[in-house]
Amino acid sequence: MNIVIRADAYPEIGTGHLMRSLALGQAFKDCGWRVTFVTYCESPGLIARLSAPEEGFDVLLLKDKSDTALPPHKNSWAVADGVAFDSRLHKSMKDAGYKLLIIDDMAALDFYHGDIILNQNLHAHSLRYNHKDGTRLLLGSDYILLRREFMRQMGIKKIITDKCINILITLGGADRENFTQKVLNSIKTLRDIKITVVVGAGNPNIESIKTVKTTAPVTIIQSVNDMAGAMASQDVAITSGGTTVWELAFMGIPSVVGRIAPIEDYLVEGLNRLGLFIDCGWFKTATEDEIRGNLLKLSANMKLRKEMSALAQRLVDGHGRDRVIEAMRART
């Protein structure tokens, strides 16, 4: 089967859409399917990853984010994952002969032309999608997409210890406003810990982040290809409300979660209702004392961390990509 994936990454929208589509693309490759990424991507690190021989993708780089051209295909699938993609783009994919899987977070369009609509978020069931007859909806955490490196951690239960030594800070692929540095500043005086800061390939602030002087040792990593490996040894994390929260949940890592973008408000609210993570509010307005206080509150409560970890690993079982592929096969 031939699959075309249309997803972009640039500062205004971050890298989450393309990284989520990467997870699905890897699942397609594991099925033996040919996968072509059509992308407007401003991150050289992400372009390098998509183009790596071990991934096995064909990659078509667009020069303009408004470019909607796709080669015509019959009986092939297209995947569209982008907050800036509208109904006209989706219809053009259908008109080109594709079956269409739309990955969407907000049901904000007037009409959805997809054969399948996927929304992996906890708030998905509360949204109303206006779609054509016969469209299948894949809604909720049963369909969370995880990349191949996380599949290698399948079935490993997180061991929660009484002391929190290893602290992970990871705020998505771009973090244009450099909240990573704010978070690092908030814990720079803490002792008896080890800090790991993971920044995405599209983060322009790494040199500034490196200037923060901390009491505890800190390791700063950019463009991690094995995020699961980087997470595995961590006791707690501070993160933003994007797709990374699902990766942390799968790994069973108790976390403090803050909001960066408006869409994250819906995701974090859903997490709150389940008691999955500690809500830090908006990173823009949260003080360094509040960020540090939330981390210390979580670190000091082993019982709470155990409950969060167990709940998170029950919620995200790692089979989301398999369920999506089953749905696509049923429509082929």
Automatic annotation (TrEMBL):
Q: Does the keyword Transferase apply?
A: yes
Q: Which InterPro entries match?
A: Glyco_trans_28_C, PseG
Provide the binding site for substrate. Answer: R147, E247
Pfam families per UniProt:
Glyco_tran_28_C
Which SUPFAM superfamilies does UniProt cross-reference here? UDP-Glycosyltransferase/glycogen phosphorylase
Give one GO molecular function term.
hexosyltransferase activity
Q: Does the keyword Chloroplast apply?
A: no
Catalytic center residues: H17 (proton acceptor)
Signal peptide segment: none
The segment(s) forming the Glycosyl transferase family 28 C-terminal domain are 167-257
Keywords (A to Z) from UniProt: Transferase
Matching entries from NCBIfam families are given as: PseG (TIGR03590)
**What is the protein name given in its UniProt record?**
GCN5-related N-acetyltransferase
Species of origin:
uncultured Nitrospirae bacterium MY2-1F
